[in-house]
Amino acid sequence: MFKNFASDNSLKNQSYKSLYNLINKSGPISQADILKQIDITQATLSRMIRELLMNGFIVESGIGMSDGGRPPILYQVNPSCNYIIGIDISRVKTSVVLVDLQLNIVAKKEFTMTINHGPETVINEIKLIINQFLNDFKIGMEELLGIGIGSVGPLDREKGVILNPEMFRDSSWSNVSIIEKLKESFPTLMILENGANTAALAEYETDDLDRNILYCISGAGLRLGMIHNGKVLFNNTGDVSSLSHMTINFEGKKCTCGKLGCLICYISLPNIFEEYCIRKGINNLELKLDYIEIAELIRKDRLIETLVMDSTYYFGIGLANMVNLFYPDKVILNGFLFNEFPSYMEQVIENTKKFLNKGLKNSVSFSSGNLKENATSVGAASMIYNYYFKDNF
User: Fold this and answer.
1) Residue range 174-182: average pLDDT?
2) DSSP conformational letter for 108
3) What is the Cα–Cα distance from 253 to 261, expressed in whole angstroms?
4) pTM for this one?
5) Considering only Cβ atoms within 10 Å of each terminal Cβ, which end of the chain, N or C, has fewer?
6) Contact (Cβ atoms closer than 8 angstroms) between residue 368 and residue 199
């Protein structure tokens, strides 16, 4: 029933959906406080509230503070009358979350991306996880509002295809029709977007005081998402990794793109590991370490630890260029290296500040965000909710 309500865009139902969205974002909330935010009569609001209560879309959630009269009843949404799946596909790991209508994580499973994790293996594993969630929580397709996917780009959003992303350990990640494959098992709304954008959206919606957010995911590669004036900034291909190929050294290393001195040559974990193997005289193709194993190596081996920390200088140059260009209120740093090594984040921030324009040094803040490693998957789920109830994505 809720899915039909969410899908009904008739003029009459739009007012109900606007009220529902207000209660979801502001609840628990009284009718008096609702009337301060929307232009309808008390009688109309009371009738709409009764209908939403009768359908089980909202619930009474206690009594508010009295201002001298009868204490008001508070209302909030019933978060478990429908669910959403959010998926985060990165080069390091894939995460799948089940969230309720308030984007609270109900269940989560993830797996590391190894050299054996090609598209077919990953999609099959995602299907198994989703089926497990649906079975465990007794959720039918009519109770699944949709599936949002945050992935490495570039992407064809309209066709639901992951095109030709760089640096997956399995080289067969090319022209992957992920939405078509998932819809074979789950006939519901699906949206594909770059994971850095979905992460930025999730963080914005948990703290919308910051209208401009630059979200950076770094580890195996580099992805940057941007919220500007409360809206996600898109490019045509969903390839927010293209900023990895910003030139920071005109006489530098040869990049896979053919240019010299791209940022990615100096900061990505695969490139750092390759440099480590060269200096050690090791064939990195034979070593075949996954990212978790490389993290353990960084903790034990002084050489690769030094290479990782040295890379923060170049990272600072590249990130400062983006901050100087977009003037964000907040920069959020996330990803494998940031999460595994707090000192790495500290050094990136310190080096970034060295290259910021004078007026920005005290006006932009840096953090790891509220949602951290869950931001991409929760943001992917948020796309589904916003498709029905909002227009900011």
Assistant:
1) 97
2) E
3) 5
4) 0.90
5) N
6) no
CB 264 within 8 A of CB 245: yes
What integer is the mean pLDDT of 95-115?
Answer: 96
C-alpha closest to that of 155 among 234, 211, 230: 234
Cis peptide bond prior to 28, omega within 30° of 0: yes
Cα 277 → chain centroid: 32
Residue 62 pLDDT greater than 70, yes or no: yes
Lowest mean pLDDT among 14-28, 304-318, 334-348, 355-369: 355-369
What CATH fold (topology level) applies to the domain 2-80?
A: Arc Repressor Mutant, subunit A (1.10.10)
pLDDT reading at 282 higher than 60? yes
**Distance, first Cα to last Cα, the chain:** 24
DSSP per residue, 319-330: HHHHHHHH--SE
Q: Which two tokens stand for residue 137?
A: 């929580």
Element (H, E) at 381: helix 375-389
pLDDT greater than 90 at residue 153: no
Residue listed under structure tokens 């890379």? 311
For the domain covering 206-372, report its CATH number: 3.30.420.40
Quick check: 224 and 322 in contact, CB under 8 A?
A: yes
Domains 2-80 and 82-200+375-389 share a fold: no
Alpha-carbon distance of 202 to 205, in angstroms, equals 5
Between the CA of residue 302 and those of 116, 205, 278, what are the distances in Å? Answer: 29, 40, 15
**Which two structure tokens, joined as six digits, stand for 319?**
């990130």
Q: Residue 127 has which token pair?
A: 């299907």
Domain boundaries, the chain: 2-80, 82-200+375-389, 206-372
Helix (H, G, I), strand (E, B) or coil at 254: strand
- The strand order across the sheet containing 29-30 reads 29-30, 73-77, 58-63
Strands (E), the chain: 29-30, 58-63, 73-77, 83-89, 93-100, 105-112, 144-151, 155-156, 161-162, 190-194, 213-218, 222-228, 231-232, 330-334, 365-367
Q: Token digits for 58?
A: 């909202």
